[in-house]
């Protein structure tokens, strides 16, 4: 049986909720006020025969008084509290923090899974388990859920926002979400559950994790030094992914609050400023039990719900393990419209699926992809080390109808080469050089840590990060020739292609373990962890110049990261370079032992010939630039026409926007002069590299496709 709250604090709260005094309860029970006071202060407890009288006085059943695992339903009911408009007339037309991220389930997966990793309970050594559930409601199931969240009380606020939709971005999103629900008769819920995590501990209003998530913006109270977040922005992705701006929360606490641990429930709504019945409202609203200590008992606080209530709110948890469930109401995935059509199973998508941002099959697949790409290392164990994370994704409809079976994200399937490399490091089976297929080479690379406090120059210590390199497992293991960099929480932070690789390099994948990810014995691991965390922007997708880095270290501290990148690229190039054979080795000996009949030479055509693009490898760099490596085949001829490589963005209609080159360099068989490729006579193949100038990109690179053209250039 669940252990309830101590009788005294529980009874005091019930009296507040019911608006009763100790004297009124005593009178109804036929006892003295001193007897009731003794119960509340813990000096005594009521006799079993009095418990039934207390239950009747509070309007509840005897079991509730005995177990005290929930509040009575008497007194102030659960309701919505909308923050009043500011007295000075100020208006906030949306939560600015939500604009730091796109309405993208892959961004949501990255931020929420990172938060769960940061809140993992470490004492038991077990991983944090995270489950993503997509749940589409229609018909009577949708009606029942709307009744549970008191939709009729919310609708006037949504209607007021819709009236402003033409002039305001958040209003347009909300209006579209409401219209989709009514016109298509559906609502998509996306629930994120974590287990073996700390839960939202602390008071409703004072400093603590609950208040940081539910009440405040730009506050981060993470549990450990290796935590991923530091800006307090990640939680905004929950509300950004909701077209209705609504998130419900059910938390099981690792440390009790008010003597309780289970089913701490609250809801938060993010809407822009609005007027309802002539009264202005500032923006946010909370779904909870009115706090009797607030003025007029208007402010809603969290409440301890019963199993039936959390079931109606679709917030039931699988166990009593600590952790939190976030329910995103009206989930949509705008970024899915930019996804490659090949990423979607056409047989399982409805006719309008290509334009549907609420298709739960597509969202399921994109969640699995993102989790495998960003958290493969956290899900990998070996050599006696358990994974830090286990993740699964499922999709349901209405009363348990399975749309997509629960998929447990497998790091060895999503990132086979890197998973193999990390396991080899954990198991101590790495080698110094790659000589056979399947091997993993290891190399230490230095990160010179700067002096803190604004001191220019000088080094406080040298951290030895760990570089792992192995061959790419298959053609599906793409993009190739990249380094995934990570630190203590083992979430991939930075993905970068290694430039200037030797020609003929076999496809490979690499991993950089920095900070505490490099191991407990790595020198200056804690200092490197702190330094690299400060070098991450809110997106946590790279290491570079940040304001915090400048303030805590120096304006030039970011150059230490540039130095680390240079060391990593040099080490990779050395490890993947093919060893040169001497003239005595097999190939040369065999050549001399054979007699090969030569063919008559073909007649070389006269006149100019034009090189042809024969191969192209393109990736997106850390700064958002396109990085390309192009191979050209050149017909036989006595003159080769100079060519100009032109980078264009693919568009559905109209002219293709042209991008500028930030860098263009020859690799083999050609030279670059003022953006023109020139070729020596007789060359049959050529290779060059390029990087586009990000400032010439009209839109974010991840949302574009690149077209490379070769145009005949001018001679001398």
Shape: elongated
Give the biggest sheet: 12 strands, mixed
Question: Structural class, from helix and strand content?
Answer: alpha+beta
Number of separate strands? 28
Gap from first CA to last CA:
89 Å
Percent strand equals 25-35%
Radius of gyration, Cα only, in angstroms? 31 Å
Helical segment count: 19
Report the average pLDDT across residues. Answer: 84
Helix content, binned percent = 25-40%
Polypeptide structure, described:
It is elongated, with a radius of gyration of 31 Å. The strands form 6 sheets. Strands 1, 2, 3, 4, 5, 6, 7, 8, 9, 10, 11 and 12 form a 12-stranded mixed beta sheet that branches. The protein has a 5-stranded mixed beta sheet with strand order 13-14-17-15-16, with helices on both faces. The N and C termini lie far apart (about 90 Å). Strand 11 (about 390-395) and strand 12 (about 400-410) form a beta hairpin. The protein is an alpha+beta fold. The chain is about 25% helix and about 25% strand. The protein has 19 helices and 28 strands. The longest helix has 19 residues, at about 560-575.
